[in-house]
Design brief:
Distance between the termini of chain A: 101 Å
Low-confidence stretches of chain A: none
Order of helices and strands of chain B: H
Oligomer: heterodimer
Shape of chain B: rod-shaped
Structural class of chain A: mainly alpha
Radius of gyration of chain A: 46 Å
Largest sheet of chain A: none
Distance between the termini of chain B: 19 Å
Number of strands of chain A: 0
Structural class of chain B: mainly alpha
Mean pLDDT of chain B: 91
Order of helices and strands of chain A: HHH
């Protein structure tokens, strides 16, 4: 059956065809693997770029958070300080402010332990309260700008 | 949102039973209101900046 293999030319052609087939198969196989590897590389490069962008965004977000938090803390401290100053001024106000002369002071102490709900507040207190309110309004207005 | 922007900066103050304590409460509460306004402004600013960062708007 394999008598034709005894002829050298035919044998050479057979071997050549076999080798060509083998190289063809290997070439096809490695080409496919190369294409697959290139695709994986492209995906890895894209992932790397996305990761880099994500890290960069996160760093920027951290900086934004840090800046805004710091600014807010500073504003809160300023407001707290302003409030404490006003509270100290209120604490320093005299206990009684009798508008119609000091002779009524004793009478008020003895006969009227409660204040008149519709009575006027002491002028100094009114000034302090209004000043505190308007100071906040001004600060709020300049902050909004 | 950073934790520092999620904490209430102050609590309300009671009126007390004297004009002085009422005045103190008024000052404290007015200031507290402004502190909350500032906190809200900071939160809005943070949200806007983050949206600009991620959406590019």
């Amino acid at each position: 059956m394999f008598n034709f293999l005894s002829k050298p030319l035919i044998l050479a052609i057979f071997v050549s065809l076999s080798l060509n087939g083998l190289f063809g198969y290997l070439s096809y196989h490695f080409y496919g693997e190369r294409a697959s590897a290139l695709l994986s590389l492209d995906i890895a490069l894209e992932s790397n770029k996305a990761l880099e962008k994500s890290i960069s965004n996160q760093e920027t977000a951290c900086k934004i958070a840090d800046t805004i938090s710091t600014d807010n803390q500073k504003e809160q401290k300023e407001l707290e300080l302003s409030k404490q100053e006003t509270l100290v001024k209120i604490d320093k106000l005299p206990a009684f402010d009798v508008p119609h002369g000091s002779e009524n002071k004793a009478k008020i102490n003895e006969e009227n332990a409660y204040v008149n709900l519709d009575g006027r507040l002491p002028d100094e207190l009114v000034i302090l309260l209004q000043s505190s309110y308007h100071s906040l309004q001004r600060q709020g207005g300049s902050h909004a700008r | 949102m950073p934790d520092s922007l999620l904490v209430s900066p102050c609590d309300g103050s009671p009126a007390g039973d004297t004009i002085r304590s009422l005045a103190r409460g008024y000052v404290a509460n007015t200031s507290c209101l402004e502190q909350h306004k500032r906190l809200l402004e900071s939160q809005k600013k943070y949200k806007q900046k983050i949206q600009e960062l991620y959406n590019g708007t």
